[in-house]
Design brief:
about 60 residues, mainly alpha, about 85% helix
Length: about 60
Amino acid sequence: MPALALLPAVLVVAFEQLVQWKYGPAGIVGLLLLTVGIKAKSPAVSSAGAVVLALLMTGPAL
């Protein structure tokens, strides 16, 4: 049973490391804002995090 509880934590850490590796510190800030906004039920904070992540994923529009 403890291994089953450990699996989600490992997946979250692995996903955070992937975002950090691919998008740098700005990706972690965007992910943090999105997570905090969802947990706090704050649409403004979660939207800001989603916008940061979307801008990082799309790259420059020009």
